[in-house]
Write a structure and sequence with these properties.
Elements lengths: L11 H30 L3 H28 L5 H7 L7 H29 L21 H32 L3 H12 L5 H21 L2 H20 L4
């Protein structure tokens, strides 16, 4: 007989004791370290975003999640992965929710961008440290740097936010968890600037809601990874 999972709730204080330092780390590194490294070396800021974010932002998220699991008494096992972190086998219903969520996010984020353009005029919604020209001969090697960054990005966020924190937040906030969770996830992205943050609102809250509704962390991985990956590739080759 499998042991019953007994998790402690993660309320406002505990949640934001994680969200706030993570947001502060992201802000400091993107505001000061990445521009400094780019100016000093003459290399593109996007390169240092991949390196610094992967090593000093998303890897610490993974380490934080592991430390929390250890404090709860969970080791690395199939039960931890499927029951505690809720990386369960995907059902057809889970996939449909994820795909519907992606469509909804695409439509709503696109509408928000159009409205913003009508209000403030044309703008580049990417933060300075993420801006780059489409790849050209001699710069395709950036894709090799991007791949491990992308994996670490998705793994780090989905492991800590959805796998480790969300189940415990549900004990504290019940059916409203996705709102608190989404707000905290949005706070983490505050360094991205208000324009991009506003366009991320549909993803932040729809994904949080769907992962809570399905109880399957893979739904978050699918949505987050499917939006980040193809979008970057499209920008790389000048498609958007």
């Amino acid at each position: 007989m499998k042991p019953v999972l007994r998790l402690k709730k993660l309320g406002f204080a505990g949640s934001f004791a994680i969200y706030v330092p993570a947001a502060a780390l992201m802000f400091v590194l993107t505001r000061y370290l990445i521009p400094y490294l780019s100016k000093t070396t003459g290399m593109e800021t996007i390169f240092f975003w991949f390196v610094v974010a992967g090593a000093a932002i998303f890897t610490p998220l993974i380490v934080t999640g592991i430390l929390i699991l250890n404090s709860e008494g969970f080791g690395f096992s199939k039960q931890t992965w499927t029951q505690r972190l809720r990386f369960k086998r995907l059902t057809s219903k889970d996939l449909l929710f994820a795909l519907a969520g992606l469509v909804a996010v695409g439509i709503l984020s696109g509408a928000i961008m159009k409205i913003l353009e009508m209000v403030i005029g044309k703008f580049d919604h990417s933060p300075v440290f993420m801006q780059f020209e489409p790849l050209s001969p001699g710069r395709y090697w950036l894709l090799l740097v991007w791949v491990p960054y992308w994996i670490t990005n998705i793994l780090g966020e989905e492991f800590l936010w959805r796998g480790v924190m969300l189940p415990r937040q549900e004990i504290a906030f019940g059916k409203y968890t996705w709102l608190i969770h989404g707000f905290g996830w949005g706070l983490f992205h505050i360094a991205f600037g208000w324009q991009l943050l506003i366009t991320l609102i549909p993803l932040i809250f729809i994904q949080s809601y769907l992962v809570q509704k399905t109880g399957n962390s893979w739904v978050g991985v699918i949505m987050h990874g499917a939006l980040n990956g193809p979008a970057f590739i499209a920008i790389c080759f000048g498609l958007i």
